[in-house]
Design goal:
Blueprint: E1 14-18, H1 19-34, E2 42-46, H2 48-52, H3 56-62, E3 69-72, H4 75-83, E4 90-95, H5 101-106, E5 110-113, H6 116-128, E6 133-139, H7 152-162, E7 167-174, H8 185-203, E8 211-212, H9 216-221, E9 231-234, E10 258-270, E11 275-276, E12 282-283, E13 288-293, E14 311-314, E15 317-322, E16 330-333, E17 345-349, H10 377-383, H11 388-393, E18 400-404
Parallel strand pairs: 1-18, 2-3, 2-9, 3-4, 4-5, 5-6, 6-7, 7-8
Antiparallel strand pairs: 1-10, 10-13, 10-17, 11-12, 13-16, 14-15, 15-16
Length: 406
Amino acid sequence: MNTDDKNNIHERSTVVVDLEAIRHNLREFKALQMKHRSKPMLIFSSVKANAYGHGSIPVARAIAGITDYYGVACIDEAVELRKNGIEGPVLVLGAALSDDFEAAIKYDVTLTVFDYDRAAQLDACAESLNKTAKIHIAVDTGMSRIGLRPDRSGAETIGRIAALENIDITGIFTHFATADEADKAPVNEAHERFLAFKHLCESEGIKIPIWHCANTAANIEGIGLEDEMDMSRCGVGIYGIYPSNEVSKENIELIPALKWFSCLTLVKEIKKGTSVSYGYNFTADKDMLIGTVACGYADGFLRILSPKGAELIIRGKRCPVIGNVCMDQMMVDLSEVPDAKVGDRVVIIGSAEDSFAGNEDNKPKADEETYCKPVTADELGALADTISYEIICGLAARTKRRYINV
């Protein structure tokens, strides 16, 4: 199936993921790389956090012929990829933990290390298994999260790790803290620190095959794509979401891959003075038509959005969420869609056109009505005083995933 024409009448919270959109976005990043380079560059795709809510296994399979590396946050995510037939290099971006060592070696997963003691423990584990453990070194250029210092002491630590017989340092990286902000001075300074550290390591005879520093925002800004780097990392961007409104969006055309739907389970009239949902924080100031939607905060729709002016799309119109969002349901004002019926699709993230999929008979003619603007993850994130990442990563396991353009 290449289009989503399935009516949601029997489905509650459901995400539809366009895998071709993800492939398109990844190809866009590969093209962007070459605008800043004279030679090809590896590309790394982050599929951590269930591929930012999109589904790690379907996404990993869909990009297998395009990406060079997969990125995850923890060993469990890496092992899940391996058990589902994903064969490319997998890097655990978080700090390596001793309980992870044996599984990482068994499943040929690369761990992140940045201190000698941890590396020595990993070396001992690898020796006991008669294997070699692969690692990337993390460097702290200003994030103050994980990583060794980009100075002579850091280079000395890498030298000591490199001398361990059962450790193979296959890469080294840093992560930028401010690449998505309008002021590029801090990220440029971090970039220069990483380049200077590379030169220092090379002067000490330390040779590491893959150096990488560009995240999604840095890719878009062309930071960390120069010939001295060997790989760039793509995270939220491959899912069609810009990391912020302060990056140069004109540099790359991204297509959002995810849409989120539910359905109306009840349509009813309430009288003026009737209160709605827990806490009675909404009371009708007139007779009105309301609907119940089969989605709540246990599906991933944040409860904090209740009083924030969140809107859902029904029959091409925006309908405000009213009352507190419940665990499994929420209510909407249907004043703009008096012809709404049980079973109508509710668009949580997506366009007005999406609200008519599988229900084309109710679609108005173009000259009869102007459709409302789409609801985006960015919009919901802003209303909740957070970022789009939290909206999509917060999609619950029980929210169904359906895939098109497989």
